[in-house]
């Protein structure tokens, strides 16, 4: 159904009615397979409204959390995020976890390269300040929905010569014979800052989980130090407890 354009006082109800039309179309699955909304020109023609009215209706729906803007990529239908119950006792990778649950894992690489470690990285990895590390700063997504931000540091010597690191850091470590077998993880509640919120597509100040992981090889050497911010609305971390012996 098209919401027809009129002028003056009718503008606010018109914006609301365009918003309702868009919501109905989203609910009926019209954009479900594509996720990204058609461009402004096409959509304004489809709905028979001006681009100004459409822009206002879209801004309202972004505010309501029905749509989301991704810088340089367009306006997307905001899907309800996948929910994950993650046992705290198993040492798995993000890619494996998502695959097991039937979600498509993907990553947006924000920074990647060989660097000298920061003093925190050198301490956490128990390496000299002169030893090169691979630093991998990624946004991790499940079915295209941002789930976590991860900043991993791995001493270069654990990654095979010229080894291509694809989507999975653990797969690359496994290929180099250096898959971690044990990890110590610390979880802490935080409020996400503006930059984290923009990446995770949540409001600034939303609760998040700040997780530090140090992972070890079988011989006790430290292979990974990763700092992550997980969205708290997508993850339940579950630990099994037993009586002390
Ligand atoms: C998980 C780990 C992270 C590890 C990553 C490897 C937590 C809190 N973090 O996200 O430390 O680097 O898996 O995933 O579980 P990948 O093999 O898919 O790159």
Automatic annotation (TrEMBL):
GO molecular function annotations of the record: DNA binding; DNA-binding transcription factor activity
CDD domains documented for this protein: WHTH_GntR
InterPro entries on file: Bact_HTH_transcr_reg, Chorismate_lyase_/UTRA_dom_sf, Tscrpt_reg_HTH_GntR, UTRA, WH-like_DNA-bd_sf, WH_DNA-bd_sf
GO aspect biological process, one term: negative regulation of DNA-templated transcription
Alphabetized PROSITE patterns for the sequence: HTH_GNTR
Domain HTH gntR-type as annotated: residue spans: 12-80
Keyword list, A-Z: DNA-binding, Transcription, Transcription regulation
Protein name: GntR family transcriptional regulator
């Amino acid at each position: 159904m098209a919401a027809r354009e009129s002028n003056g006082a009718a503008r606010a109800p018109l914006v609301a009615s365009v918003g309702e039309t868009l919501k109905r179309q989203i609910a009926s699955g019209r954009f479900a397979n594509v996720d990204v909304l058609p461009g402004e020109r096409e959509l304004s023609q489809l709905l028979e409204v001006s681009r100004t009215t459409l822009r206002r209706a879209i801004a309202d729906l972004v505010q309501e959390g029905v749509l989301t803007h991704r810088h340089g990529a367009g306006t997307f239908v905001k899907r309800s995020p996948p929910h994950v119950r993650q046992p705290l006792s198993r040492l798995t990778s993000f890619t494996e976890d998502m695959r097991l649950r039937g979600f498509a894992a993907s990553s947006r690489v924000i920074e990647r390269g060989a660097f000298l470690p920061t003093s925190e990285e050198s301490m956490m990895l128990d390496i000299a300040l002169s030893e090169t590390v691979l630093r991998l700063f990624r946004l991790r997504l499940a079915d295209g929905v941002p789930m976590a931000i991860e900043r991993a540091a791995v001493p270069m010597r654990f990654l095979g010569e010229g080894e291509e690191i694809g989507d999975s850091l653990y797969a690359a470590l496994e290929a180099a014979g250096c898959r971690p077998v044990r990890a110590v993880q610390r979880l802490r509640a935080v409020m996400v800052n503006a930059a984290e919120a923009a990446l995770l597509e949540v409001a600034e100040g939303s609760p998040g989980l700040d997780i530090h992981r140090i992972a070890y090889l079988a011989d006790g050497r430290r292979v990974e130090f990763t700092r992550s911010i997980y969205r708290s609305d997508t993850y339940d971390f579950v630990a099994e407890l037993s009586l002390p012996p």
